[in-house]
Design brief:
By secondary structure, this protein is an all-alpha fold. It contains 17 helices and no strands. α11 packs antiparallel against α15.
């Protein structure tokens, strides 16, 4: 019975998959709980200057990106299981550290540790899922991981609203303790998972940088990582671009932005696993990326239409835009996971996924600025530029992935 909800979600009833999935549920609930509370807790309860809190979060983000290559190498050298356990344990320790933070000296190390599992831990989680599942089951597991993450943000956000309504220091401390407990629970669940053995890197690869030279020599994979960073502009195009466009360039009531955000979250929760159907490996991603490109182009067209029409038509156009935008997001995400894990050789999987994660990190660093600049300065033409960038990168990713020499000729399709 314990595995019934996961089978209903489309996941195979495999012990390792089941335990990781429950770990993802627990992790996402805790993260969703703390996301709205962190900045408020530090500034309003602990009474730290907002600038100092922002500085600590920036340091944590930069540190996480800098540690991505190191973590990738640790996955290959020590194994994915101990690295994943360590990442979750560090996150638990850092979050628990919030309870005793009373100044910047404790704030920065606490925030860095707390965010470790979410920043530098990205290739660890991907490598772990790639090692316990194969083919379409792997794609579905990664899709479930993202789906439940969005659901956790929603449920955690509701719990956070309760904490904010209570407003006492004790309520915040209980929430922080629960978040730390979720990370610790995820670490325990990971510790109980039997992970298939992987052939370790050759002795020469153990030398610093040698393994990464091999990854960088795989120019197609590096190009796919860079293209993925461009495709991922769809994320900030929604998080930043959609509400900015609605408020400043359409006649749609501002309250509609919240409804559209909710619609996106619900669609991701309900359909992300389904979007991964049929993706057994990189040879299958061509049609998926093509559909993602078409969907984003349609979304851009609908956003533009909303700018030139009356209120009623603009509301309908924004609704269509968000639906198509979300479809593009679902398909592009499924293609991303299938490519980054499917083309990474097992013995250097950590390093490969670390390189791929840098494309995501680059998009997070410049995405908001680029989207804001385009839509503010170019108006509706900004959506045309974004469509060319995102849809073009998606189409190129599909063509490049299915022609990678690591795929056998008979496997190549699309």
């Amino acid at each position: 019975m314990a595995g019934l909800p996961l089978r209903l979600a489309g996941l195979p009833d495999i012990p390792a998959v089941r335990r990781w999935a429950w770990g993802a549920v627990v992790d996402s609930l805790g993260t969703g709980l703390m996301l709205p509370l962190g900045i408020i807790y530090f500034t309003q309860v602990v009474k730290l200057p907002p600038v100092m809190v922002g500085l600590a979060m920036s340091v944590a983000g930069i540190t996480g990106v800098a540690l991505v290559p190191v973590v990738g190498a640790l996955v290959d050298r020590l194994g994915v299981k101990p690295t994943a356990i360590t990442a979750f344990a560090c996150a638990a320790a850092g979050t628990a550290g919030y309870l005793v933070v009373d100044g910047v000296a404790l704030l920065i190390p606490a925030v860095v540790l707390a965010q470790l599992a979410d920043t530098a831990g990205r290739p660890v989680k991907q490598a772990f899922m790639a090692q316990i599942a194969e083919g379409e089951a792997r794609s579905k597991l990664m899709a479930f991981n993202r789906s439940v993450r969005n659901a956790g943000y929603g449920v955690g956000g509701l719990l956070a609203a309760g904490v904010l309504a209570i407003g006492t220091r004790e309520a915040y401390l209980v929430a922080i303790a629960l978040d730390a407990l979720t990370f610790a629970t995820a670490a325990v669940l990971v510790a109980t998972i039997a992970v298939p053995a992987v052939r370790p890197p050759a002795k020469d690869d153990a030398e610093a940088g040698t393994g990464y030279r091999e990854v960088l020599a795989d120019w197609r994979y590096v190009c796919l990582a860079g293209l993925n960073g461009v495709v991922l502009l769809h994320a900030h195009a929604f998080l930043v671009g959609m509400p900015l466009w609605l408020v400043e360039h359409t006649s749609v009531p501002q309250a509609m932005a919240g409804v559209l955000f909710t619609a996106n979250t619900v669609m991701v929760v309900l359909f992300q696993v389904r979007a991964a159907k049929g993706l057994a490996g990189p040879a299958d991603v061509g049609p998926t990326y093509r559909r993602a490109a078409l969907a984003f182009a349609a979304a851009a067209g609908a956003y533009i239409l909303a700018h030139f029409t009356s209120v009623a038509v603009a509301i309908a156009a924004m609704a269509v835009a968000v639906v198509m935008h979300t479809i593009a997001e679902l398909l592009a995400s499924a293609g991303e996971w299938t490519v980054c894990t499917g083309l990474a050789p097992e013995r250097l999987r950590g390093r490969y996924l670390a390189v791929y994660a840098l494309g995501d990190a680059a998009e997070k660093a410049i995405g908001s600025l680029l989207i804001t600049f385009l839509l503010t300065n170019a108006g509706w033409a900004g959506w045309l530029v974004l469509s060319l960038l995102v849809s073009g990168a998606a189409l190129l990713s599909g063509r490049l992935a299915v022609r990678h020499p690591r795929l056998k000729p008979v496997e190549v399709s699309g």
